[in-house]
Amino acid sequence: MESLQPRDYIARIRRKLQQVGPMHTLHLLLVRTINRLALFKILRGILLLKVDPAFLDCPAGYTPGFLDEKQLRHFARDPQNELDDSFLDEALAKGDRCYAILDGENLAAYGWYSRQPTRINPPDMLLDFDPDYVYMYKGLTNPLYRGQRLHAIGMNRALQSYMEEGVRGIISYVESTNFDSLKSCFRLGYQAFGSIYLLRLFGRSLRLYSPACRHYRFALREEAPMGGEVGASKA
């Protein structure tokens, strides 16, 4: 745990107050304080129910679409793409799909989509959800391609494709302390529907759910880890 002098600690709090305001700062301090004693997370459930036509057209020269296993194994050779073999083995075995935007032979951006319960962080937890929705996780944009809204374009194109298969929308989560990601998701048209509270102390887990989670079958269940997390959100 990082050790700070009182003056540095106060300066950090002041910076956070300026960045996110008093309520978010208090929330962050509360969560961090609890995490000094136990694992504590609040997962904000979010939904995207409509395709935004403004985010369907790719910039000229880019190729969007779902990647097959051969393409994924090829891109996994580059550590910058964060696609190791153990991740691909588990994701592909459960039928998850990767929607990507390519710039020639380069992987510019991607996001993963699942219709099955998916491993999150901590890696012995699976996120369950209503199978009428598709779970979006592990979104990544190559730093060289940021600022072109490729994440939003890929996500909306993937949603359009899944809706043609009968899916009602995208379901996902963002941790409550990830204020920037939450703000970004809301700008993209996501709406919050509920929260999961996870507390782990002395090896035992307590999970509490806000009422709307039941409607979307949004829940956590434990399963033995398989060498690393798969479905942690990077939105």
TrEMBL record:
Q: What is this protein called?
A: Acetyltransferase (GNAT) family
Q: Which domain of life is it from?
A: Bacteria
GO MF terms listed in the record are:
acyltransferase activity, transferring groups other than amino-acyl groups
Q: Which InterPro entries match?
A: Acyl_CoA_acyltransferase, GNAT_dom
- Kindly state which keywords UniProt assigns to this record, in alphabetical order: Transferase
Domain N-acetyltransferase per the UniProt entry, residue ranges: 46-213
